[in-house]
């Protein structure tokens, strides 16, 4: 998600249909806000544009089609969209010049969660927007572009055109791939807008998921992340499978493959649906990564009730205990919200206490942001912004200490790392993750990207580990 959310994925991707009349190919550019689901949806948009003959542009200034794939989980994310649209307005001033060069006008589209939620209103507020596509209307892009080229402006589609097939997606990463297994969420946590932007849950068929994962494995991907807002409620009634059953099927389907998918991750798990069977599967299936992202949101039972989360602090800590007993060395991360309406100092203290007890490897933390169409609006949001800010800083400081200490405990140990990129700091180092999701950097060449290597940890830093390779890549 944006800023400090799960995976930190706010992406910018060049991606564009028909430019100059018949000469150079048209170009596209996509900016993605929000979570991994949006990142993967942008990959599907990019694939569709490639099939229309478009190529990626370096910036929106050079693009024939500009797409903003939006997130509305917090108010700030929405503000960002409208300021970005304001910045892009000048592109529309180039239309006369483009027409003289035989080019179609620049098309600006808004997609994703704000598109689903606001629909028509976006075009009314920002006249430079040519089309709006909701979260379940991704597949309508080619027909919308066609309608625009025929002069039918102001296209808004927010109905369902669900098609889970992502075989034409242009994936951003050549080592790790996202695979959507469900859309929507039935949980209605009182603070969360997602059920109204992504709709109610619908599940992809098990066979289709297994086929896609097998296909990715054959193409040399080394890791897949199964995506859903609440993966633990995934079910395929026809196949008689629940989520732990799906993981076992995938683990079996990938057994014995060489050079293909070695790790299966999944996001996100709701604590109320985390079953003993899932924990047991994580302990016994070799391909299931030893990491769980288990959002707790708060350590206060009173606030948990108001959030409509359906578990207690003790229940959550019991799950953590079970998990650590069954899956030795498992990595654990979470999401936390501070400043939910009426959160007292005692409630906040309970969150700090829970963080100490759970001993997380990492977390994402947010100040509560009131969202339209959510039940939490019934509670008065009277906490001063400075109090929310102070609590967030205090929480993050506590975690910094826990993480530094935990990271130092890795020193001297050897871990298996899946190398996925160059290090962000220097091209002399490469970067990867352990099964437990620890980031590890070490000196190495780009040729290692996509390999599993053993690395001896020499230094535990604030957010990552540093080490030296020992042994040959596989
Ligand atoms: N489905 C996941 C779950 O149940 O935990 C999370 C999905 S949500 C898109 C990602 C995170 O954003 C949540 O876990 C929560 O911490 C945060 N979030 C959602 N709504 C929020 C709000 N109104 N204000 C602040 N943070 C929010
Ligand atoms: Fe939002 Fe709750 Fe659904 Fe997660 S489980 S997407 S927080 S409503
Ligand atoms: Fe944002 Fe929508 Fe994801 S609201 S976090 S992009 S599901």
Describe this protein with a few key phrases.
disordered N terminus, binds FE3-S4 cluster, Rossmann fold, binds iron/sulfur cluster, seven-stranded mixed sheet, five-stranded mixed β-barrel, 474 residues, pyruvate-formate lyase- activating enzyme, alpha/beta, binds S-adenosylmethionine, OB fold (Dihydrolipoamide Acetyltransferase, E2P), globular
Written description of the protein model:
The protein has 3 domains: 3-157, Rossmann fold; 176-408, pyruvate-formate lyase- activating enzyme; 414-469, Nucleic acid-binding proteins (OB fold (Dihydrolipoamide Acetyltransferase, E2P), Beta Barrel), CATH 2.40.50.140. It has helices at 36-51, 75-88, 95-100, 112-118, 120-125, 141-149, 194-198, 206-218, 243-254, 276-284, 301-306, 313-326, 345-358, 385-408; strands at 11-14, 27-32, 55-56, 65-70, 107-111, 131-133, 155-157, 176-180, 182-183, 202-203, 223-227, 235-236, 241-242, 263-267, 291-293, 331-338, 362-367, 414-422, 429-433, 439-443, 452-460, 465-469. By secondary structure, it is α/β, with parallel strands linked by helices. Strands 1, 2, 3, 4, 5, 6 and 7 form a 7-stranded mixed beta sheet that branches. Strands 18-19-20-22-21 form a 5-stranded mixed β-barrel. Strands 8-11-14 form a 3-stranded parallel beta sheet, with helices on both faces. It is built from 14 helices and 22 strands. The model is unreliable at 1-21 (pLDDT under 50). It is globular. The chain binds S-adenosylmethionine (SAM), iron/sulfur cluster and FE3-S4 cluster.
């Amino acid at each position: 998600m944006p800023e400090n959310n799960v995976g930190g994925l706010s992406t910018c991707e060049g991606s564009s249909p028909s430019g100059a009349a018949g000469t150079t190919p048209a170009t596209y550019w996509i900016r993605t806000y929000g979570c991994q689901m949006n990142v993967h949806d942008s990959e599907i948009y990019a694939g569709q544009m490639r099939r229309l003959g478009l190529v990626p542009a370096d910036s929106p200034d050079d693009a024939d089609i500009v797409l903003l794939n939006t997130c509305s989980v917090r108010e700030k994310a929405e503000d960002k969209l409208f300021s970005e649209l304001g910045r892009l307005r000048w592109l529309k001033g180039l239309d006369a010049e483009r027409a003289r060069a035989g080019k179609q006008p620049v098309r600006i589209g808004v997609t994703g969660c704000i598109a689903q939620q606001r629909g028509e209103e976006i075009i009314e507020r920002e006249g430079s927007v040519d089309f709006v596509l909701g979260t379940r209307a991704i597949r309508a892009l080619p027909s919308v572009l066609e309608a625009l080229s025929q002069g039918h402006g102001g296209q808004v589609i927010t109905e369902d055109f669900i098609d889970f097939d992502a075989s034409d997606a242009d994936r951003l990463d050549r080592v790790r791939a996202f695979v959507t297994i469900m859309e929507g969420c039935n949980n209605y946590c009182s603070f969360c807008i997602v059920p109204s932007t992504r709709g109610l849950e619908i599940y992809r068929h098990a066979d289709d998921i297994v086929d896609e994962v097998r296909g990715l494995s054959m193409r040399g991907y080394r890791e897949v992340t199964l995506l859903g807002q609440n993966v633990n409620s995934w079910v395929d009634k026809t196949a008689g499978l629940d989520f732990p059953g799906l993981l076992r099927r995938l683990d079996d389907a990938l057994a014995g493959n060489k050079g293909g998918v070695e790790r299966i991750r999944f996001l996100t798990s709701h604590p109320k649906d985390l079953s003993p069977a899932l924990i047991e599967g994580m302990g016994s299936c070799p391909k299931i990564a030893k990491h769980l992202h288990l959002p707790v949101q708060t350590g206060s039972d009173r606030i948990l009730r108001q959030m409509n989360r359906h578990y207690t602090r003790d229940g959550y800590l019991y799950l953590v205990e079970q998990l650590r007993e069954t899956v030795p060395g498992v990595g654990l991360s979470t999401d936390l919200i501070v400043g939910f309406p009426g959160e007292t100092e005692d409630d906040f203290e309970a969150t700090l206490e829970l963080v100490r007890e759970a001993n997380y490897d990492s977390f994402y933390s947010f100040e509560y942001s009131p969202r339209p169409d959510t039940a939490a609006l019934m509670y008065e949001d009277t906490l001063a912004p400075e109090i929310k800010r102070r609590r967030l800083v205090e929480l993050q400081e506590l975690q910094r200490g826990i993480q530094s200490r935990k990271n130092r405990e890795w020193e001297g140990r050897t871990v298996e790392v899946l190398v996925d990129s160059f290090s962000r700091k220097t091209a002399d180092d490469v970067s990867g993750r352990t099964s437990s999701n620890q980031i590890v950097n070490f000196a190495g060449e780009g040729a290692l990207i996509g390999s599993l290597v053993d690395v001896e940890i020499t230094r535990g830093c604030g957010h990552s580990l540093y080490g030296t390779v020992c042994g040959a890549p596989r």
